[in-house]
Amino acid sequence: MANYQLFCTFAADMQRYFIFFGYDGTNYHGWQIQPHCVSVQEVLQRALSTLLRREMEVVGAGRTDAGVHARMMAAHFDFEEELDVVQLARKLNRLLPRDIAVDRVERVANDMHARFSATSRTYHYYIHTCKNPFLRSYSWETHYALDFDAMNMAAAALLEYEDFGAFCKSHTDVKTTLCHITEARWIQTGDNEWYFVITANRFLRNMVRAVVGTLIEVGRGRMTMDEFRHVVEGKKRTEAGESMPAHALFLENVSYDG
Q1: Is the dihedral of CA 56, 61, 65, 69 positive or negative?
Q2: Is 163 a catalytic residue?
Q3: Which of 29, 107, 140, 186 is a good FRET partner for 250, with 20 to 30 A between their CA atoms?
Q4: Which of 13, 24, 65, 163 is catalytic?
């Protein structure tokens, strides 16, 4: 009982902070710490531990796969002292490598959680349909003739469903494949440049890249709208399109109430 009371007193003294940051995922094996691989979480934790002079743990808003980028990611950590958040953000940026940049650090309520308090996440997948050496690192190059009207019709249909098992990586241990998608569409930004935007309360592992791969099948005329619906309703990953390359995928934003 005494140990429990001591823990509660310690926990009550802790203060929670959010770090909002972005990263180029090219040189990382995703967000989450992995054995024998460099991850964004590992690098961020190491920098924070160095500055605060104790072992720190950061909890991210979600996981990005190897090679996937984030324009805005969130993570939280707990610390027992009041921190100068402006100074901490500045010092983190000095210490972190050039491919990780902190936007800001904020003191938040102790019950805020980077992952579970998030209300939505937004991803963009970039493609270009003409050879361009300046886009090749962050956009998927294709020379297929794509019907973007058909792709947008299929994308809009995603909002009618809740179970996206068809787009979940095989043999993934997840409790549910239910997601609530609120936005899914292709947007043109130039003569030969497009991106797919999708927003949902949560995403399954590899889901966005599998969705894009299946929409590409629709755009190439290799899958009809009825067949697309059959794929979604069938919930079988083997019937959906291929998983698209990671380098063109960006976590654009994580949203929180307030």
Answers
A1: negative
A2: no
A3: 107
A4: 65
